[in-house]
Amino acid sequence: MRSIFTKAGAAALLATTANAQLYPDQSPLNHTCQLQQPLLSCPSQDPSQVDSCCVETFGGLVLSTQFWNTYTGLESEGQVLPTDTWTLHGLWPDFCNGSYTQYCDLSRQYDPIPSPNTTNGLKNGTFVPPYTGPSIATFLNPFGRFDLLEYMNTYWIAWLQDNAGFWGHEFSKHATCFSTFNIPCYGPEYQKHEEVVDFFETAVKYYKRFPTFDWLAAEGIKPSNCTTYSYSALRDVLFEQSGGIPFLGCTGPRFNATAAGKNSTDNGYTVLSEVWYYEHVYGRPQEGNTIPVNASSTYLTNCAKAEGAINYYERTNGSEKAPTVPY
Ligand SMILES: *[C@@H]1O[C@H](CO)[C@@H](O)[C@H](O)[C@H]1NC(C)=O
Ligand SMILES: *[C@@H]1O[C@H](CO)[C@@H](O)[C@H](O)[C@H]1NC(C)=O
Ligand SMILES: *[C@@H]1O[C@H](CO)[C@@H](O)[C@H](O)[C@H]1NC(C)=O
Ligand SMILES: *[C@@H]1O[C@H](CO)[C@@H](O)[C@H](O)[C@H]1NC(C)=O
Ligand SMILES: *[C@@H]1O[C@H](CO)[C@@H](O)[C@H](O)[C@H]1NC(C)=O
Ligand SMILES: *[C@@H]1O[C@H](CO)[C@@H](O)[C@H](O)[C@H]1NC(C)=O
Ligand SMILES: *[C@@H]1O[C@H](CO)[C@@H](O)[C@H](O)[C@H]1NC(C)=O
Ligand SMILES: *[C@@H]1O[C@H](CO)[C@@H](O)[C@H](O)[C@H]1NC(C)=O
Ligand SMILES: *[C@@H]1O[C@H](CO)[C@@H](O)[C@H](O)[C@H]1NC(C)=O
């Protein structure tokens, strides 16, 4: 009787643990990662052989992403861009093969405007309900992390959306897919939303290592509404400085639809707007022991590659202000 009871108890305990976990079969240990060898995140580790709290076991290709926007759309509410600085977009856990998943834990859905609105981005996916609770910014209050909040309000700036809604989007769409920011990783003393604060801190940590504006400016590549730039020049500077070829994202008209690109076969976009830096990570991403890697050779950019095809626009007047907290 006793042995059956014990087994049933153990099974129930494991089931509870498994339910609280993003991926099945995680180690039941208390995840003291300092006691373990810091394994490399790619190629991906076998989840049955490693503690997925101590190495990014699924989304091992970590992307630190930034925006260059010229306005926010919420200037009237004081939401402006930091002068001479690209802004933080997010920290994403892509699979080692470059594909990715999203909205991995709907019990931590804090995104007011889920995009896409299903877990797989298709009609047959699980619906992601819009979040209507208190702003994710309030999650920092019990931890007293007002310095972090001020940093985020300076550098983690949304476009056509309030900043906190955007942070909720980044957390729920991407951070819930990291094995290492999963709630069981925080052990028995976990405090509600601890992993949210930890994710915000980690995203900031990575962001600070990639001063895109300064790297480009040092090579004379500065925002301009008169001059244009070439993709290859931007790529070369950022590769040299970061150690990996980042993905460069553009919006705006296609080159072949502009006057300068008339009759060109180059149909890439012409307005510089994003950069994604790729890394593999030893141990927990929180520790930041990374090695740079190149973006996928089949998806290095959607920008036009023709000479001088890219606009790196100046911010709109009134859309930026000098930051009062240091980068
Ligand atoms: C995990 O933490 C709990 C609560 O502090 C403790 O009772 C348990 O012994 C720990 N387990 C291990 C393997 O350290
Ligand atoms: C990429 O890796 C993930 C996770 O291992 C897997 O689910 C997916 O099928 C892979 N995709 C491709 C295109 O190989
Ligand atoms: C989900 O998004 C799709 C495409 O953006 C949209 O057509 C659909 O109405 C949305 N569904 C709901 C329930 O909001
Ligand atoms: C959802 O639809 C896609 C194609 O539209 C299909 O490939 C996939 O198998 C479907 N998934 C499920 C869970 O039905
Ligand atoms: C530019 O290229 C796109 C995509 O190849 C094509 O659809 C479009 O017609 C082209 N535009 C012009 C003006 O040639
Ligand atoms: C573009 O093509 C049109 C006709 O297809 C031609 O008249 C024009 O001279 C070409 N423009 C350039 C810049 O080559
Ligand atoms: C990244 O790309 C550069 C330029 O093509 C190449 O020299 C370098 O070896 C690549 N790095 C890796 C890790 O593949
Ligand atoms: C520069 O051009 C962009 C794109 O047209 C515009 O949004 C921005 O306001 C301009 N900046 C200045 C200072 O004129
Ligand atoms: C933006 O401000 C600059 C300098 O104050 C001025 O020269 C320029 O005309 C302004 N641009 C617009 C679009 O208002």
UniProtKB/TrEMBL annotation:
Top-rank EC class of the record's enzyme: lyase
This protein's GO CC annotations: extracellular region
SUPFAM superfamilies the record matches: Ribonuclease Rh-like
GO molecular function: ribonuclease T2 activity; RNA binding
Alphabetized UniProt keyword annotations: Endonuclease, Hydrolase, Nuclease, Signal
GO biological process, one term: RNA catabolic process
Signal peptide location: 1-20
Pfam families (UniProt xref): Ribonuclease_T2 (PF00445)
Entry EC no(s): 4.6.1.19
Gene3D superfamilies for this protein: Ribonuclease T2-like
Family, as annotated: Belongs to the RNase T2 family.
PANTHER family: RIBONUCLEASE T2 (PTHR11240)
Protein name listed in UniProt: ribonuclease T2
